[in-house]
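Q: I'm building a small set of examples for a reading group on sequence design. Run inverse folding on the following structure and report the sequence directly after it, with nothing in between.
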């Protein structure tokens, strides 16, 4: 569900073309896997950044390039954080991004992108380009932040499809029933 709804939010906010783009997915848990698979299915080249060696190995075995965020920033066109950790993308990463980079979060609350740092190092901005898209200029390069760093699948889209939520809640109810009986 997160994979589809995240791409939906990004597309609604930006109308970008995934085919030919390099998408950096931060985190390879269940949500990161979904985004990586959906982005690859849309024709993007996908890089995964992951600090857990086992998850990084799984991403490699699934056919994705894996590297630290510090290296991925030079290649990425779109960055999506899905880790649950704070400040996954921070000042040194913003400074290393190429002109026109897009940054968004679909992870845990709004803590994964260091928005305050982006605002403090920005030479100009934010300039609202369209709803849910703010542009900052850092070291002469334009960086677009989607949804103020909040969950893009909820900020610019409708979240998971109803069928995903139906299955999730049904499984939870059946698990609770199983535990009781």
């Amino acid at each position: 569900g997160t994979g589809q709804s995240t791409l939906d939010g990004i597309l609604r906010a930006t109308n970008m073309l995934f085919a030919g783009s390099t998408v950096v997915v931060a985190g390879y848990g269940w949500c990161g896997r979904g985004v990586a698979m959906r982005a690859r299915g849309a024709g993007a080249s996908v890089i995964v950044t992951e600090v857990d060696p086992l998850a990084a190995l799984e991403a490699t075995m699934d056919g994705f390039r894996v590297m630290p965020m510090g290296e991925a920033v030079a290649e990425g066109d779109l960055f999506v954080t899905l880790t649950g950790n704070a400040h996954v993308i921070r000042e040194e990463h913003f400074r290393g991004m190429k002109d026109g980079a897009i940054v968004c979060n679909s992870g845990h609350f709004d803590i994964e992108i260091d928005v305050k740092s982006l605002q403090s190092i920005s030479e100009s901005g934010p300039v609202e380009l369209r709803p849910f898209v703010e542009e900052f200029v850092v070291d002469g390069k334009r960086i677009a932040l989607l949804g103020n760093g909040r969950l893009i699948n909820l900020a610019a889209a409708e979240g998971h499809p109803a069928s995903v939520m139906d299955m999730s809640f049904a499984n939870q109810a059946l698990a609770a029933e199983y535990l009781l009986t």
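The radius of gyration is 17 Å.
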